[in-house]
Amino acid sequence: MVSAGLLGCSKGPRPSIIIVTVDTLRADHLGAYGHEAARTPVIDDLARRGRVFTTALTPSPRTTPALATLLTGLRPWTHGSREVGQKMRAVSGLASTLKQAGYATFAVSVNGAAGPEQNLDLGFDRFLDHLQVENHTAAGVTDATLDLLDEAEPTAPLLLWVHYIDPHFPYAPPASWTDQPAAPLCRSLYRRIDGDLRETALLRGDLEGRASAGLEECTTLYDAEIAFTDFHLGRLFEGLETRGWLAGSFVLFTSDHGENLGEDGLFFEHGPSVHDASLRVPLILVGPGVEPARDRGIARLEDITPTLLDLVELDPPEGVSFDGVSLVPRLGAAGSEASATIAIAEAGNALLPESFAYIYSGQNRKLHCINTASYSLCSDGDGEVRLYDHEVDPYLQSDLSSELPEVVEDLLAARDRWPPLKVRERAAHIGRYKLVERPRFEGGFSAALYDLSSAAGESEDMSARFPELVKRLRRELSQELDRTESSEPGELSSRTLEALRALGYMN
Fold this sequence. Notes:
The structure is a single chain. This protein is an alpha/beta fold and about 500 residues long. About 30% of the residues lie in helices and about 20% in strands. The protein has helices spanning about 5, 40-50, 65-70, 75-80, 95-100, 140-150, 185-195, 195-205, 210-240, 275-280, 305-310, 405-415, 465-480, 495-500; strands at about 15-20, 50-55, 105-110, 125-130, 160-165, 250-255, 260, 265-270, 280, 285, 295-300, 345, 360, 370, 375-380, 385-390, 425-430, 435-440, 445-450. Strands 1, 2, 3, 4, 5, 6, 9, 10 and 11 form a 9-stranded mixed β-sheet that branches. Helix 6 runs parallel beside helix 9 and helix 7 packs across helix 9 (about 210-240).
């Protein structure tokens, strides 16, 4: 348990907890994390007043698994949600524990993959989702949150979780927002897509160099979306302060995952890659006894629930053993970054079938493909397979299966080797070093070790120099992930499917 000295108010009512998460937010696009072009004064001020974890990591670059981990202290393969939209098991987490301790528990999330349909509302007295909040921009989320507090007028300590979604692709700050880059080339890409998820997938794979050409402009729009969100975070904090909910509270700011902006050959997307562009998230904690400082040790989303319960002196739910650990020993003036922590992450699937860079793309009950560098063997679940040369036929129009039966046989064999939910990238971080395992077409995983402190970053494989470290980290990944079952999400509800289509995840 946390000491009374750190809590600073253990004899009085327990402090309130405010959790703010911003979807698809890379840590390195905030001023507090060194981004010179950032316009994030509110978040940067929060960082100046609290503990900034510079190496915070998500266990999944997908929204539902990541946020379920944040709210439960359990990794995706423990709580059961391993893909966007997949419901987590009904486990007791942060909200349920605080509610039982007398907290009023409120949440607002306008991401249709992060709400009641996925069990993320468990333990919350009031939960406003994407169907109950009309305006899904940061302005609307802030308005809905403050209105909820005024309507409910909680008298007990408060747990408030607010999830913003603005930086999600396409990056399009509202026209009324004055920080509006012209970005004509990027906006022309949006017009070409116009809701067509096939065009979206081909853009993300950089067909004809379109994404590369528009990257700089699209990145300025991504930053403008973050600036817009930051402004309305300022309104949220001002509103909480005038209502008496900010003073003496713990405020935690983070994200579910980042965004690939060309890293790993993936543009304007997250999910199938475990590059740090998608795995590293901001993590800032402010509150009584939390000394302002920068902590460079590993912190993980699974550490958040144990940390917050520790801060308010509450035990874990009965029968629950967290995958994460409390960060409280690292929060005081004498806090130590020294840790043997390892961060394990698992990618999601490439959910759009035209994502040819991955061995498996699409969804098992719909159109899905097994891919090589040149060919894709695709089926829509009816048992019939069709072969395409996606290098010359990216729109999958000319079936070559009768002409190249040997290629069909090779791809059918690969399909048998790789169950869809096993053919995923995975990674192990231990601070300076990161091991990435990638599925091989012929079976098993390749491995690459990266020195994240070097200028080469995730572009130079150091495996040959550190064979024992590679062996140890591969063993850690195998022990953590190979023992688990990869259950399919099952039938998603019509509301979830509609939300996932709107977010560009699936047809």
